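Handout, page 2. Input:
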Amino acid sequence: MHMKIDFKRKGTLWPVAALCCLLWGSAFPMIKLGYSEFGINSDDTFTIILFAGIRFFLAGVLTVIIFSAAEKKPLLPTKTSYKKIPVLSLFQTVVQYIFFYLGLAFTSGERGSVINASSVFFAIFISSVIFRLEKLKARKILGSLIGFAGVILVSLGAFRGGFGIKGELFILLSSVSYAFSSTFMRIYSKEDNPAMLSGWQFILGGAVMIAFGYALGGRLSFSSPKGAAILIYLAFLSAVAYSLWSILLKYNDVSKVAVCSFMTPVFGFLLSILASGASAGLWQSLAALVLVAAGIIIVNYSGKNKKDII
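Output:
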């Protein structure tokens, strides 16, 4: 992209990543409002997948429109991207979210958020050990553990009653899929516009999820203007957040960007508290945010005497 912004600078990386996580965090309460407006029950998995598919398809369309206007030319796939878009769509949208929503049908949202945060560890491992895009350093593991502690803090009590098998396993598979998508975006965006890749993978992935959800009995009624507005907002936040996130992955190591995603469940929890007007858990979520910030700083630290694990 023809931008003068230096996305490698911490003064750019951290605020942009925080904005993405804030947008993603706002999705938690908005999705619940959307389910209420559309009359979707929490156990109606295939209608939820249909809802998500429409959201991501619209997100792709909005991404293409917004960045076409920014680039002053149509944001169309290139010859080198035709094989990349299906791979990104498979890992980033289809597999990740189908497993995530199927998992949520068998476990709580709080547990899902904690397990989903494990994608940071998978992303660092996949990028460092499998694809060798960066070195696995002790500070990256330490910073990730501290950031993950913040997620655990904000989700205390989520695992009372023990572990399930199906729900937790599905969400774990979702996290692995997301970790692979982050690494693939890092690789693919070296040759292709990350916003273009983001937009078209959303369109393809959203279409697959719509077909999957509808074929298995998912149905939606668009009689509520408020529900439609919520759906458009969810599509907009996905378009903006994931496109900006993809640009960050283009210019930075996967580990430096991935660790910032610990902010998402913390922001989600904080925004849910503010939306409900309750004060319980406010200080807990702020303390969790401090731990997450500390983890991000440690992972992104670039001082001397850095110990490599691999």
